[in-house]
Design brief:
The complex is a heterodimer. Chain A is of the alpha/beta class. Chain A is 54% helix and 9% strand. In chain A, helix 6 crosses helix 7 and helix 15 packs across helix 16 (361-376). Chain B has helices spanning 40-55, 84-95, 135-145, 152-158, 170-182, 187-209, 225-235, 248-262; strands at 2-9, 13-22, 25-35, 62-68, 101-105, 110-115, 121-126, 215-218, 239-240. Classes of the chains: A alpha/beta, B alpha/beta.
């Protein structure tokens, strides 16, 4: 069945999503449709649960950004909705053309990051639910602060920005205090007594999911059974599900699948191995299939790196603060460089592809510095100027030529 | 003794080079350049037919064909392809063994390439996602100025002053030129300014890969002596141009075909 995305009736769909029966039926459909693909099945079941919590009209809706610790929300029985992830998802199903068009009704400059342009479009088009709380950190990018503020101005919701400072004497303590204040403020508004019990549960779930991801990353050092392209897709699960049972279920399923493939010797063939920095295009494109046709494998990617220690249930806010402030994956050039060097060595990559998101201020600023630094260390690197969401900013043929030449150089 | 073909299907022109390979020596026997049109595959096949007829060579005698350029992925007469970046390195190295840096300005893109002693690519940089600083930019401007593009070099050399063109966007630059003309600026000074405008777009690419002598310029724009002089003027480095700067990619593709045959 082909869905006509151009003429989709969003209002009608929102009405349908209020019926409780939709969800058990949806779950049966997902289980049947993806019975042979457990990873996709779990991720879709999670997405269905996310929709259920946020579209049935029975729960408070919290919109937040990537790297804001989802544990804080799951602890309060909130199901955080990440517009950046929704943005990528809508692009993947071919809906972003429409939502980007909606965004131009409010923000017309195409020089802004398409992820956030699409966030505005998703809200404008009535696809995202009207939020009760909009919470955004200033890290990893400032765009979220602005686009989320705009959402609150147009569509309501209490806007709660969280400033994440650059490294200074007490930056972890400062951030921890901010998280603590936010957590108890939300608990009070939601009338939750003893919210700290929920936080303990969320921290434990988070640690379990983390440890599965650590195990996955260790297995990937030795075995190539799933291409990094898939892990670029799983980034949404990394950003969204930690602190929930879904996170545990998803990463356990992924770990089990990898082990199974290793056991059955389902190794991917390759001639070239590359390390991928930043995320990749989420709209429909044959780019990654083409890359595979060139026998090039993405052996690891920046977004899958576990850069934080296990969280301490007895000191949750400090633990979460450390997790967030140490996440310099998309911004801090020195830290990205260090992680890339480490990744290239650990995963046996021959070169690095640095994806440069159009309109990403912090990313565009340091991509070429990063490339230069890698080359100085003898690691071939290439910057690809493209787009995660807007295929209009992704000149496919030119990009293929550049990558192909890069592979010839390797 | 064997014959090999190198084909470069670019956005504007298609180039074919016929090579002979005998006693470890490669010679260029003939080459042809034609508009690509809407079907690069057929344009290339037509040029191949013409060249083989002229040289009286049986198609069966062709030992290998290498293809490069944007049209390389849609050809049906060979599956041996290389990117134009690698091919330019190889082709220029054949003509100028001392070349270490290449500036190639073609119809829709421009690129700087740093190469090693064997023509192997060490680093490369390409223009942004628009036609600024490419052959297409000059074509559009020539049309606005009602001047034959082939005269841009001669006019540049004969003109003392230049008008600075501030816009890099092809469409905006077109409007700027119309305004300059209406304000009474001399057409020849505008042409000289356009050549400098191209040079200023190309130089950061060269600096990005690192400028190492000898520097060679290829692509259709290399035929415009004005652009070459403008780059030399700004950089203070002599720029060499091959006997036919448009065929270096095809030449490289042909040499790769020879190397592939030897393997």
């Amino acid at each position: 069945m082909k869905i006509d995305l151009e003429n989709i009736d969003v209002k009608r769909i929102r009405e349908i999503l209020r019926f409780p029966l939709v969800y058990p039926l949806g779950r049966i459909f997902i289980k049947l449709k993806f019975r042979k693909d457990k990873i996709t099945s779990v991720s879709y079941e999670y997405a269905l649960d996310l929709v259920k919590h946020n579209y049935m009209g029975k729960n408070k809706v919290v919109i937040t950004n990537i790297l804001m610790p989802s544990e804080l929300f799951f602890a309060l029985n909130l199901f955080p909705l990440l517009p950046e992830v929704a943005s990528a998802f809508t692009a993947s199903i071919g809906f972003a053309d429409k939502t980007l068009f909606h965004s131009e009704e409010i923000i017309y400059s195409k020089d802004l990051c398409s992820v956030h342009r699409n966030v505005i479009g998703l809200t404008r088009g009535g696809i995202l639910p009207n939020p009760d709380f909009i919470i955004s950190t200033s890290h990893p990018c400032h765009s979220a602060l602005h686009s989320f503020f705009l959402i609150s101005q147009f569509f309501g919701g209490e806007y709660l920005p969280i400033d994440i400072p650059l490294k200074n004497n007490n930056f972890i303590g400062y951030t921890a205090k901010k998280f603590e204040e936010l957590f108890f403020l939300l608990a009070k508004k939601l009338k939750i007594k003893n919210p700290i019990y929920g936080l303990e549960r969320a921290i434990n779930y988070s640690n379990l999911a983390r440890n599965y991801l650590v195990e996955i990353n260790e297995l990937r050092k030795k075995y190539l059974v799933i291409d990094g392209k898939n892990f670029l897709d799983y980034a949404g699960m990394i950003f969204s599900t930690f602190g929930s049972h879904w996170g545990v279920k998803f990463f356990k399923t992924l770990r089990d699948e990898i082990k199974e493939r290793i056991k059955k010797k389902k190794f991917l063939p390759y001639k070239k191995r590359v390390y991928w920095l930043h995320l990749g295009p989420y709209f429909k494109t044959d780019f990654f299939d083409w890359l595979r046709s060139k026998s090039c494998a993405i052996v690891f990617e920046e977004s899958s790196k576990v850069y934080w220690d296990e969280l301490d249930p007895k000191d949750p806010f400090n633990s979460l603060a450390k997790k967030v402030v140490n996440a310099r994956i998309f911004s801090d050039v020195e830290e990205r460089f260090r992680l890339a060097l480490e990744g290239v060595k650990e995963y046996g990559a021959e070169g690095v592809i640095i994806f440069n998101q159009w309109g990403c201020r912090q990313g565009a600023g340091n991509s070429y510095i990063l490339r230069r630094k890698l080359i100085e260390k003898g690691i071939p690197a290439i910057v690809i100027d493209g787009d995660l969401i807007d295929k209009g900013n992704f000149p496919l043929e030119q990009i293929k030529t550049r990558i192909e030449a890069f592979l010839e150089v390797l | 003794m064997g014959y090999f073909l190198g084909v470069d299907i670019g956005s504007i022109t298609t180039k074919v080079v016929l090579l002979s390979y005998k006693n470890e020596k490669i010679d260029i026997l003939n080459y042809k350049i034609s508009n690509t049109g809407i079907d690069g595959n057929n344009s290339a096949k037509r040029l191949i037919d013409e060249i083989l007829k002229e040289e009286n060579i049986d198609p069966q005698g062709i030992k290998g064909i290498g293809v490069t350029g944007y049209g390389r992925i849609r050809v049906d007469f060979t599956d041996f392809t290389k990117t134009e970046i690698s091919c330019h390195g190889k082709g220029v190295n054949f003509v100028f063994p001392k070349a270490r840096t290449i500036l190639d300005i073609g119809g829709q893109d421009s690129k700087a390439i740093r190469i090693g002693e064997r023509g192997e690519v060490l680093d490369f940089a390409m223009n942004d996602k628009c036609a600024a600083g490419t052959g297409r930019f000059l074509e559009v401007m020539a049309k606005v100025l009602e001047e034959n593009l082939e005269n841009f070099g001669k006019i540049h050399m004969e003109t003392k002053d230049k008008v600075e063109i501030t816009n890099i966007c092809t469409v905006f630059a077109e409007s700027e030129i119309i305004t300059l003309l209406s304000e009474g600026y001399d057409k020849n000074s505008i042409i000289k300014g356009l050549n400098y405008s191209i040079a200023k777009r190309a130089i950061p690419l060269l600096k990005r890969v690192g400028i190492e002598r000898d520097v060679v310029m290829t692509g259709g724009v290399a035929k415009n002596e004005g652009v070459r002089r403008a780059i030399e003027d700004i950089l203070g480095v002599e720029i060499y141009v091959p006997f036919e700067p448009q065929i270096m990619g095809a030449l490289g593709a042909g040499i790769f075909a020879v190397e592939n045959y030897k393997i």
